[in-house]
């Protein structure tokens, strides 16, 4: 049974990553070793999220959603804090760049891919507009509170929050995320389940939305491997962070590109999983993953970064620039127009992917 739920590579990769971490800890790494450690880091990220999904499926909701979100956030925060410690003032905007990149990747990249694949499979991608609309509204509110307001506040010069403002944003983000989790898993879970359309054109909740949960033994194995993988991610990130920053600088890319790389690395497993569900005609689950990842990225990362600033020196720039705010505003407007009908075509997916392409291009050439 474990073989069905836990593929061999998800068992071996964390152990290999652990050995590499022990061999490279505290040392300057040559180029070949950096490449090897980077590959192990990517494998550890994929393995950690896989095992988190197994554990989440076993314990059920609302604890399952919390385990998966917290696991992904640990990875993201580990990479951000590690680079902020080693980068000094030049990494002051790293948290903002990473969180904003996560929003763009999820709400345009993953969102567009899910709609595109779903529409290719059945001509029209069908989903529950009530739950998806509530998720987008939460993402838009979190992004505005944490990333837009700092640009316009006047307590501190520059796009920064004062300590009381940062504390408010952290508490508000955590409260909103917790409220959404409660609504999704306790109060209105049917709004977030896959839907089908009957002969009369009515939307019906898919009764086969959930697969059979794994056994206790498989869940315990995954829990142990999850802890190993997360520890490896934190340790290996510290080793490769100088090489990543040097590579970005050597390529002539702006410092904000580091945040984009981090977000893409962290969200790679969610992207693969979302597309997998869309191919199974479970578009709603793919959209849940996309918007849920965006929410976790803001709602859990901002509070942790706020706490970390107690011992981290230097400024924390959270406010977006004009170009980024325009992209965020267009994303919210287009996302709303896409969600309201509860069905989407290839065009909707293409529009979101065009916005994602614009974000990537402007991140490399601002």
TrEMBL record:
Coiled coil: none annotated. Its main location: membrane. The chain crosses the membrane at residues 9-26, 32-51, 63-87, 99-120, 132-153, 165-183, 218-237, 257-275, 287-312, 318-339, 346-364. Residues 32-185, 222-362 form the Sodium/calcium exchanger membrane region domain. Keywords: Membrane, Transmembrane, Transmembrane helix. It holds the Pfam family Na_Ca_ex. It is a multi-pass membrane protein. InterPro entries: Alkaline_pH_Ca-Antiporter, NaCa_Exmemb. It is found in: Membrane. This is Calcium:proton antiporter. It comes from Nocardia halotolerans.
């Amino acid at each position: 049974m474990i073989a069905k739920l836990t593929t061999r590579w998800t068992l071996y990769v964390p152990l290999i990553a652990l050995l590499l971490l022990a061999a490279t800890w505290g040392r300057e790494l040559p180029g070949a070793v950096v490449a090897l450690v980077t590959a192990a880091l990517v494998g550890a990220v994929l393995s950690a999220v896989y095992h988190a999904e197994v554990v989440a499926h076993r314990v059920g909701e609302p604890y399952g959603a919390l385990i998966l979100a917290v696991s992904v956030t640990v990875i993201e925060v580990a990479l951000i804090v590690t680079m902020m410690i080693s980068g000094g003032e030049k990494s002051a905007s790293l948290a903002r760049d990473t969180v904003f990149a996560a929003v763009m990747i999820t709400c345009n990249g993953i969102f567009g891919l899910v709609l595109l694949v779903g529409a290719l499979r059945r001509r029209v991608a069908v989903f529950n507009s009530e739950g998806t609309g509530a998720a987008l509204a939460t993402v838009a509110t979190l992004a505005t509170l944490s990333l837009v307001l700092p640009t316009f506040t006047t307590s501190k010069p520059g796009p920064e929050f004062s300590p009381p403002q940062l504390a408010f944003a952290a508490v508000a983000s955590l409260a909103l995320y917790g409220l959404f989790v409660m609504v999704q898993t306790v109060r209105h879970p049917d709004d977030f389940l896959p839907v089908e359309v009957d002969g009369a054109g009515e939307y019906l909740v898919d009764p086969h939305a959930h697969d059979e949960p794994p056994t206790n033994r498989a869940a315990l194995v995954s829990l142990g491997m999850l802890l190993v993988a997360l520890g490896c991610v934190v340790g290996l990130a510290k080793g490769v962070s100088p090489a990543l920053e040097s590579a970005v600088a050597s390529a002539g890319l702006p410092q904000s590109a580091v945040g984009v790389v981090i977000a893409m690395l962290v969200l790679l497993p969610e992207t693969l999983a979302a597309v997998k569900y869309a191919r199974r005609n479970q578009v709603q689950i793919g959209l849940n993953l996309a918007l849920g990842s965006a929410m976790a990225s803001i709602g859990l990362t901002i509070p942790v970064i706020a706490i970390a600033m107690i011992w981290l020196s230097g400024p924390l720039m959270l406010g977006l620039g004009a170009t980024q705010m325009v992209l965020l505003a267009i994303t919210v407007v287009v996302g709303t127009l896409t969600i309201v009908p509860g069905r989407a075509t290839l065009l909707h997916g293409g529009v979101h992917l065009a916005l994602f392409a614009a974000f990537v291009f402007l991140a490399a050439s601002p």
